[in-house]
Amino acid sequence: MAIAVALELPALPYAYNALEPYIDDQTMHLHHDKHHQAYVDNANAALGKHPDWQNKSPEEILKSINSVPEDIRTAVRNNVGGHVNHSMFWAIMKPNGGGNPTGRIAEVIKNFGGFDAFKEKFNDAGLKRFGSGWAWLVRSKSGQFEILSTPNQDSPIMDGHFPIMGNDVWEHAYYLKYQNRRGEYLKAWWNVVNWDEINRRLEQAK
Ligand code: MN
Q1: Ligand 1 center to 168 CA (angstroms)
Q2: Of 34, 67, 91, which one is at a domain's C-terminal end?
Q3: Which residue from 25, 61, 157, 180 could staple onto 17, CB 3.0 to 4.6 Å apart?
């Protein structure tokens, strides 16, 4: 008999206030301890109804989202999606991050017309996402690097793409500090980007 493995909330790899002044301490507490925890709990509750799905990795589940049993598919989409998206999100940020991209990701970004053009296009994807969702740089299933956005907690993995980096544009990610000024949050976010981790993901995307 297969042993069901429950998803777990990963610990933040830095202090809750470590991304100040760009992302505030209270937002990080609520975002990580409440929002992400809820995605984990809801995902486990849904997958618990179909234990054969509990033995797959969350990425495998997202890849086969259309084969997930219908009675849990929406819950899995939202909550396994939320878990995978946020697990990436904490890791691709760090205190004293930002600055110019380094390593192989710098080469990828150069092909978007340079770092400023890349940031503008990425921020624009986040700004134009109506309601809640994410802005992404992905390696598409055809092997191209693309900037796109997804609604809600949809992951690019669901469409066969590999998410290299993504920014959360749900209001819960910025509203306490930036209120309705999503554009300001998007610009500030580049100060906490962890290029080392993004380069690590880029290697995985090959
Ligand atoms: Mn979020």
Answers
A1: 6
A2: 91
A3: 25
